[in-house]
């Protein structure tokens, strides 16, 4: 297993100019250039059967002691199903000036939700993501809660439901349907719907 | 919503909203389906209704204070999560836990797995209208719950593992209680199989429903019993063994079809394997310490704290400042009831976690839900959801 880690690190170093993360003392982590991430993951998936994307973990280094370099990072945890026990983590650094990261949704289906979560919690945007919106937090939520400068005790007023019908229509269109007449959003509190209601 | 289907035919679809609070969605998930008659043509789903900010909360406390939060991830098998978390942190310290601790953790792990699988199968039956199996599954589950009560003092969100040790040693009569529970689990399994295996209605409702291929399941990041139901032999207890799982005699259970029925059958068969492990572990349970002796990591016992200067300092420091996990980052995954629960841990060398990201299996499973239900009837969608064993606690965190 360790041999695998050594080979893969040297291959990635040679091919993509990646660097081994010194902080990862107990597993293998490689820092890759942000714009290479799609190519690196595709390479690992095809050549080394890293066929499962386990997790995307956003990291905000704002208050990390003695940290130098970009503020944000994303850690991609990958493992291989064909060769059990082979794991690798990839890390991309994202600076506050440019929050865009290439998407990997075309390689793994689970990446859709994982990337939405990182977007939701950290505000990093994934270029090419088909449906980038908040996932865990409410759609009216302002800010990105897992950033270190977001106070944990801040309260927000969130009241409106997600309508979700436009997303459904968009989804139907990707399935090959053509929407001719869209459904209209109604407000149940409008006067015309309050016929017979005690509210009137 | 009037649409043209891919063949150019005009359809009048009805968008139908289900959930977030619906008896069949168990916890909180919302499905918006466009239906034609009774068939779901397309669907989108939404989660996050139980998002409590686990990852933000744990950054505010010390390392030990993370443990009770992990109980609230998958609350049907709460102790498995804190064992998984403690294992990750122990690996970072590079410490080896005592033998008795390992065996106790294996027993607790496997009993939790039994509990979790029972509640999943029972709920799946309940959703399809079968109340008898629900009771069959809940009798042995209650027995295990009573063991939890004696062991930890709590029934549902119990925490037992500690970093470098356990909350306390097992109680007198633990072994006989566990053995008795094993017997009733096996009896309940017989009853459940009698209800399930040849039940025409149940088979019609579940066989071939919600099928997923191996490739899709892997691409969706599925792990645990739902992945094994598709025929992929993958279990971290065998692949990357910990706590001496490789030395126990048990088998990885795999399914063939990857449909709703397989997902439940795999769980029932896994209960059988877990009982096997528990019985073997009970034989290995020899007297000995459960905690490591290191006042910097495991809070020292009262005896040590009151008689020993080092113990007193250790107790004071670990409570007020938290234990100091070495600086660095690590991903550690453990096989829990639902699949691989992983913790990406970023430590800055202080007594507080800098960042902990949970890789929850339900998140991956539920992300496939909308695709699974497309083309099925609305009633079938609710035959699939319980089989995925969606637990909102770990889904939304």
What would you note in describing this structure?
The complex is a heterodimer of chains A (200) and B (397). Chain A has 200 residues and is of the alpha/beta class. Chain A has two domains: 2-160, 2-Layer Sandwich (Beta Polymerase, domain 2); 163-200, no CATH class. Chain A contains four helices and eight strands, in the order αββαββββαβαβ. Chain A has a five-stranded mixed sheet with strand order 1-2-5-4-3. Chain A has a two-stranded parallel sheet with strand order 6-7. In chain A, strand 4 (72-79) and strand 5 (87-94) form a beta hairpin. The longest helix of chain A is centred in the N-terminal third of the chain and has 15 residues, at 2-16. Chain A is globular, with a radius of gyration of 22 Å. Chain B has a single domain (54-396), classed as Cytochrome-c3 Hydrogenase, chain B (Orthogonal Bundle), CATH 1.10.645.10. In chain B, helix 5 (132-152) packs antiparallel against helix 6 (174-196). The model of chain B has no long low-confidence stretch (mean pLDDT 88). Chain B has helices at 54-58, 66-71, 78-93, 99-127, 132-152, 174-196, 200-206, 214-219, 225-228, 236-239, 260-284, 302-307, 309-320, 361-367, 369-373, 378-384, 392-396, and strands at 2-4, 10-12, 14-18, 30-36, 39-46, 161-162, 165-166, 328-336, 339-347, 355-359. Chain B is an alpha+beta fold and 397 residues long. The longest helix of chain B is centred in the N-terminal third of the chain and has 29 residues, at 99-127. In chain B, strands 3-4-5 form a three-stranded antiparallel sheet. Chain B has a three-stranded antiparallel sheet with strand order 8-9-10. Classes of the chains: A alpha/beta (200), B alpha+beta (397). Chains A and B meet through strand 3, strand 4, helix 3, helix 4 and strand 8 of A and strand 1, strand 4, strand 5, helix 1 and helix 8 of B. Strand 8 of chain A pairs antiparallel with strand 1 (2-4) of chain B, so a sheet runs across the interface.
């Amino acid at each position: 297993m360790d041999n695998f880690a050594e080979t893969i690190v040297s291959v990635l170093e040679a091919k993509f100019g990646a660097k081994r993360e010194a902080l990862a003392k107990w597993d293998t982590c490689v820092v890759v250039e942000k714009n290479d991430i799609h190519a690196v993951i595709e390479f690992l998936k095809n050549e080394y059967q890293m066929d499962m994307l386990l997790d995307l973990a956003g990291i905000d280094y704002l208050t990390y002691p003695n940290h130098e370099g970009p503020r944000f990072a994303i850690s991609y945890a990958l493992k291989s199903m064909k060769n059990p026990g082979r794991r690798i983590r990839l890390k991309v650094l994202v600076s506050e000036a440019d929050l865009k990261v290439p998407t990997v949704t075309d390689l793994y289906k689970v990446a859709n939700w994982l990337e939405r979560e990182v977007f939701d919690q950290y505000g990093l945007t994934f270029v090419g993501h088909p449906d980038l919106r908040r996932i865990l937090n409410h759609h009216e939520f302002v800010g990105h809660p897992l950033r270190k400068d977001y106070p944990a005790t801040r309260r927000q007023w969130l009241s409106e439901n997600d309508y979700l019908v436009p997303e459904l229509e968009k989804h139907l269109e990707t399935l090959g349907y053509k929407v001719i007449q869209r459904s209209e959003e109604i407000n149940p509190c409008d006067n015309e719907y309050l016929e017979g209601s005690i509210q009137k | 919503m009037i649409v043209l289907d891919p063949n150019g035919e005009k359809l009048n679809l009805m968008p139908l909203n289900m959930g977030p609070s619906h008896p069949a969605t168990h916890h909180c998930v919302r499905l918006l389906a466009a239906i034609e008659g009774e068939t779901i043509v397309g669907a989108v789903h939404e989660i996050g209704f139980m998002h409590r900010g686990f990852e933000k909360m744990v950054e505010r406390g010390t390392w030990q204070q993370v443990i009770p939060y992990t109980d609230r991830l998958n609350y049907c098998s709460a102790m498995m999560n804190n064992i998984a978390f403690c294992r990750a942190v122990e690996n970072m310290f590079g410490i080896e836990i005592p033998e008795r601790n390992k065996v106790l953790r294996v027993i607790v792990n496997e009993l939790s797995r039994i509990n979790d699988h029972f509640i999943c199968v029972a709920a799946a039956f309940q959703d399809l209208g079968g109340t008898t199996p629900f009771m069959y599954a809940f009798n042995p589950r209650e027995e295990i719950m009573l063991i939890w009560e004696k062991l930890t003092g709590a029934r549902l969100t119990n925490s037992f593992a500690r970093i470098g040790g356990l909350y306390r040693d097992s109680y007198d009569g633990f072994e006989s209680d566990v053995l008795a529970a094993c017997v009733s689990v096996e009896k309940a399994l017989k009853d459940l199989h009698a209800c399930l295996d040849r039940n025409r209605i149940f088979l019609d409702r579940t066989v071939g429903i919600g099928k997923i291929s191996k490739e899709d399941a892997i691409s969706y990041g599925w792990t645990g019993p739902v992945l094994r139901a598709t025929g992929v032999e993958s279990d971290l207890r065998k692949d990357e063994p910990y706590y001496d799982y490789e030395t126990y005699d048990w088998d990885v259970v795999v399914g063939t079809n990857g449909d709703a029925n397989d997902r439940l059958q795999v769980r029932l068969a896994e209960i059988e394997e877990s009982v096997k492990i528990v019985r073997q572990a009970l034989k290995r349970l020899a007297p000995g310490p459960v905690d490591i002796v290191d006042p910097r990591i495991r809070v020292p016992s009262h005896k040590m704290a009151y008689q020993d200067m080092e113990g007193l300092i250790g107790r004071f420091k670990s409570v007020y400042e938290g234990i100091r996990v070495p600086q660095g980052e690590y991903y550690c995954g453990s096989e829990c009831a639902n699949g691989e629960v992983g913790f990406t841990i970023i430590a800055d060398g202080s007594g507080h976690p800098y960042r902990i990201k949970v890789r929850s299996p339900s998140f991956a499973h539920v992300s496939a839900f909308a695709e699974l239900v497309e083309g099925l009837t609305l009633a079938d969608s609710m035959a699939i959801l319980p089989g995925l064993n969606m637990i909102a606690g770990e889904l939304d965190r």
